[in-house]
Design brief:
This protein is mostly helical. It has helices at residues 13-23, 27-32, 44-61, 65-78, 82-101, 108-121, 129-143, 147-164, 167-183, 187-204, 210-218, 225-239, 247-251, 253-256. The protein is 72% helix and 0% strand. The longest helix has 20 residues, at 82-101.
């Protein structure tokens, strides 16, 4: 289960502050920095980024659905180009996916429809295409139970992320390709992919995503390394007040067994 695959940063003080907050799971504070002030209208880029942050919060915390919906409606309303409309549709698909996979409300059809709409709007060579491909892989794997289709989508996303320099997205594609390898008993490939995902997240300082990466690698490692990795994941999980919420089940003693 993964959120946005980009740091969306341009090196400005604002984007640096947004990234620092997002990487520590402070999505509400990060989104607040992007709110228009003094009666100014929301710009398409800021509205989309704000929506993306609040959608990611839903995926990691299982709350804030209404705020994410409001932010998405704003992003959809101010979008002007096909790429902007496609990016907003991609976020809507992600929100519907999160709602479905986390059991909040079944919105699987909406997720598929929104990502299909995004695919029609976003040019295959556009920078936003790899994230869309990745999210279509999530749908294939977790909602359609089609690992072959998921693998193909993740590979397209991986290649696109490499081409566009989307390093954080690469941490997601590595992890999910590794998850499919683990599912098929390919332990060497799984370990490599999980290790690469963890390395990238540690280098970027993506703290909120590091505990899931540690736990994923633990699933592919023998003892005693697996126990050490889960213990470190548990420490970070507690440090972030139990975020992401869905990691609790993976870190439980029964899950380890």
């Amino acid at each position: 289960m993964s959120g946005s695959g980009t740091t969306a940063g341009d090196g400005s003080p604002l984007q640096t502050a947004v990234w620092r907050l997002r990487s520590r799971g402070c999505w509400t504070d990060a989104a607040a920095l992007l709110e228009p002030h003094g009666g100014a209208a929301a710009t398409p880029a800021a509205a989309l980024q704000r929506a993306s942050l609040l959608v990611e919060r839903c995926l990691f915390t299982e709350r804030g659905w209404a705020e994410a919906e409001d932010a998405l409606r704003t992003a959809e309303a101010v979008a002007q180009s096909d790429d902007e409309r496609g990016a907003a549709a991609c976020e809507r698909g992600q929100l519907a996916y999160a709602s479905t996979v986390l059991g909040a409300r079944d919105r699987a059809d909406e997720a598929r429809s929104a990502l299909g709409r995004a695919a029609a709007l976003i040019d295959p060579t556009a920078p936003g295409r790899p994230l869309l491909d990745f999210r279509r892989g999530l749908i294939a794997e977790h909602l359609s139970d089609s690992p072959q289709s998921a693998r193909a989508a993740y590979r397209r996303a991986h290649a696109g992320a490499t081409a566009h320099g989307e390093t954080l997205l690469l941490s997601f594609t590595w992890r999910h390709l590794a998850g499919l390898s683990l599912r098929e008993g390919e332990l060497a490939d799984a370990r490599h992919g999980f290790a690469e995902s963890l390395r990238i997240r540690e280098e970027l300082g993506y703290l909120v995503g590091t505990a899931p990466a540690l736990a994923a690698l633990a699933d592919a490692e023998p003892e005693p390394e697996a126990t050490r990795l889960r213990a470190e994941a548990g420490r970070l999980f507690r440090l972030l007040d139990g975020v992401p919420t869905w990691l609790a089940a993976q870190l439980s003693p029964s899950a380890a067994v």
